[in-house]
Design goal:
By secondary structure, the protein is of the alpha+beta class. It starts with a helix and ends with a strand. 25% of the residues are buried. Strands 1, 2, 3, 4, 5, 6, 7, 8, 9 and 10 form a ten-stranded antiparallel sheet that branches. Helix content is 36%, strand content 27%. Strand 9 (271-276) and strand 10 form a beta hairpin.
Length: 297
């Protein structure tokens, strides 16, 4: 299999080159020897949209040139872009752009299209890992139960992973009422820069804090504005290095200063990750990283 960055880059290129050649997920899976479920999950997580919807949008966008620049019939255009029936194409076109192909040809209305997706060098942490960022989101209040450990900055990544694996294999089984039992929350707070320690909590989200098992810890994350970063790596989670984690945090800080609206880390300095454990068997690690932010005025 290709390295992750190269794989995603090639898939995007294949979609653009295959718009008139009936490009689809089956063809991509066959070319890269990956399963359909793997491709769909990977693309959806990386680009925050389904690959089938993206391919359809790109076909519809490309077909506009034929509508406005030629006298080709709507039926011929539909077939050219691999729509089986004219009405299927017209319906998809109207759903995408709010106007039929025929009305667009008559009116010449300006419409917004979905441009090709791209990967950028700043997304690439190395050949195997990519950080997509950031979205500014409001995270609603949620409860969590887990195990709390105070760990040193030195080799904090290795230590945190060891603690997380211990919790996931043992204490997690004691927790009842998990909202999503496949998602592990790894939360870091109470960072002490002088003593070079922080508190790390491995936990799962729960519906309430009524039944906390002995020896575990329960708390509530209050509704907050956060920057959300999607991270994906072509490896098992145990292979994450301190270097990669440091690069993630550097990228987080730099990304918050881009664009017209600037954000800064809040005084609370709480970081947490939502780790999807269902991908472990596929040799893929994916997580969403959140950090509380404030908007600069």
């Amino acid at each position: 299999m290709l390295k992750l960055y190269e794989l995603l880059e090639n898939i995007l290129l294949d979609i653009e080159n295959g718009i008139k050649d009936n490009i689809n997920t089956s063809a991509l899976c066959k070319k890269y020897n990956i399963s359909n479920s793997y491709l769909r999950s990977l693309f959806s997580f990386a680009f925050n949209q389904s690959i089938a919807a993206y391919i359809r949008s790109r076909k519809l966008a490309a077909s506009i040139n034929d509508i406005l620049g030629t006298n080709t019939s709507i039926l011929e255009i539909a077939l050219e872009y691999s729509f089986e029936y004219e009405q299927t194409y017209i319906r998809a076109f109207k759903n995408e752009f709010g106007i039929t192909p025929g009305d667009l040809r008559k009116t010449g209305k300006i419409i917004k299209i979905k441009p090709p997706l791209r990967l950028f060098n700043e997304n690439k942490l190395d050949d195997y890992s990519i950080l997509f960022a950031p979205d500014i989101v409001i995270v609603p209040e949620f409860h969590f139960v887990g195990k709390s450990d105070r760990i040193s900055f030195e080799n904090s990544t290795v230590t945190a992973l060891q603690k997380w694996k211990q919790f996931w294999g043992n204490e997690r089984k004691q927790i009842k009422g998990a909202v999503n039992p496949d998602i592990c929350i790894s939360l870091m707070h109470n960072i002490d820069w002088e003593e070079k320690h922080l508190e790390q909590i491995a936990a799962v989200q729960v519906t309430n804090l009524k039944n906390i098992p002995h020896g575990l810890f329960g708390d509530t994350f209050k509704t907050s504005m956060c920057a959300r970063f999607r991270y994906i790596r072509q490896h098992h989670n145990s292979e994450i290095s301190n270097n990669i984690v440091n690069r993630i945090y550097d990228t987080v800080n730099k990304s918050l200063q881009h664009g017209h609206i600037k954000y800064e880390l809040s005084n609370n300095k709480i970081f947490f990750a939502m780790i999807d454990t269902t991908f472990h068997d596929k040799n893929i690690y994916k997580a969403e990283y959140y950090t509380q932010v404030m908007q600069n005025v």
